[in-house]
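Sample A.
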Amino acid sequence: MATGPVVTLKKLWRQNRWLALAFIIALTLALVFIIRASIFFAYWQSHADEPIEGWMTVRYVARSYRVDPKIVHDAVGLPDSGPDRRPLIKIAREQGQPLDVLTARILDAIRLDRAAHALPGTSTTPSSAALPQATEPAKPQP
């Protein structure tokens, strides 16, 4: 008599279809979640410390720079009303300031947080050295 996984599955299918279906569904779900987690991991590995742009949200910036979203939230100057899903450009417009000023404040807050969590005996962490320098916005000429 033949043995192996195919024979075992055929026998299980004949004797208990519900158990076989539950096994197939569980296997499919596990595969879906493994693929989803892999894609998520690969995306954020390649999008670390991205230059801040207007389309980004507070949460996206926090995840890209690997800091607590509250740090970016406070740097932007938002009230404690929960997560804000607006893009940074919209927040800057509503606050009546250029996006460059908002970006500079966010980068300064991230730099301060990374310096506070730096290892003893080091001045900065390697990832904070790679942060773009915050620049003053250009002042209009009279």
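Sample B.
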Amino acid sequence: MKTIAYLQLNGNAAEALSFYKNALQATDVTEVRFGAFGQDPNYPLSETEQEMVMEARIEFSGNVLMLSDVLPSMQAVTGPVTSGNTVLISVIDAEPTVNEQLFTNLSEGGAVIMPLASMPWSASFGMLIDSFGVTWKFNSDASKFLNGFNA
């Protein structure tokens, strides 16, 4: 079993997919649009909705990030898609040079919360919010740090 990060977006998943593909230096990208399936006459989708991303997967450095658009009709039930601060994506145990490259790429058009720097607990630690409102945390020594506290 695996657990992965899955981003839900408000009609801009294709733009996010392109951004993350480049920023994360993806090795494989797969995407399916809502229009790839026959229309249900009881719940027809507009042309705009048919072009939205139903499911996408980005593979990079042995990791997976998935994302999709949330259709307006779905938001009528689930509520609107909003950027938040209750979940972040943490890049752990990467070499500091890898952190630097990903941090630079992901911060383009976003906001740096804490620049990458050496800390007592990590050779390379930093945080940012990307241009899609997703918070990223980098900690090159996360496992080493936490393992030091095992009883």
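B remarks: Helices lie at 13-23, 47-50, 72-78, 96-107, 142-147. Residues 9 and 69 are 5 Å apart (CA to CA).
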